[in-house]
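Progress report, Aim 2. The chain analyzed during this reporting quarter is listed below.
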Amino acid sequence: MTPARNDRKPTLATIAEAVGVSRMTVSNAYNRPDQLSRALREKILATAAELGYSGPNPIARTLSRGETGSIGLVLDYPLTAALTDAATQQLLHGVAAGLEERALGLSLVPQMRGREPALVQQALVDGFIVYCTPEDDPRLMTVYDRNLPYVLVDYEPRSGRRTVGIDDRGAARATAEHLVSLGHRSFGIVLGGDETNPTGRAAEAASDRYVGIERLGGWGEALQAGGVDWDAVPIGTADGFVRDTGRRAASMLLDRADRPTAIIALSDELALGVLDAAAERGIDVPTDLSVAGFDDIPEAALATPSLTTIRQPHDRKGSEAVRLLLEGEPPESVLLPSELVIRASTAPAP
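Predicted structure tokens for the chain:
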């Protein structure tokens, strides 16, 4: 007998009455199919389809179970920037791969001026992975307040919290030591984003992110050990983190009367912009200027000239963050390997 339709929105109780079973039995047809015979479940689903019932409300189901089956990834970029940044793309791939293995979903929580804490507070997730925000960021504070499991990527390792990262200071030191070994003694630093520096000196560069602090520290240690006055090293900055940011920031250094013979950039995206600024001025890299980046994104090896950089496993950062979030008891910190990759953009000082 075909159930009669009516104008009321169908519910579990509606389906239960039509089939002649309990409401719990209908619920089990959707949520615990192993509790029913195949024939009964098919009858329930067929009746539901006939009555126009699409299934339990996912939000109500989440509240009743106390879990969502989804993890939130808090990004320190607007969504459009995050999806076009090569390093972030690799991290996203690693997170997605780790979640797919466990049949879990992903919710992106991007930077959205004025709404960041609300987005974190309202995210329907079972835990968070937070990627490279400042330690006092309101979003991070909201993550703490929600009392859900979390993992921090590119933060200072501390007792009692789960972190994933690399030895940024050691990697940066290796870059600067390489350039010093080539005879360079005149340096410039290129930063981006909010890391402005009114004095224009690297030794006083302000950075509110752990990776920025550590990389500046590593460069400074190596240059001072090589006889370079770190206090006098000039810095170029511009808004943003993209390639054009590096081009604009490098222009500040390349137009100086005492132009540096080597420039180190906070990221490969910025370093590629340094190459652009040099090409605009007819400065040959590496004959007249050596350039080094950080990240080893795919474009680094394809650049002209190919870019000397630090290789770090962004993809594995993402997958390790998922593992720590779901399996990391007690809390631990994971330090992944990095490697100096020497290519054609660095050469002996002119």
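Residues 1-6 have pLDDT under 50 and may be disordered. Residues 86-101 form the longest helix (16 residues). These observations will guide the mutagenesis work planned for the next reporting period.
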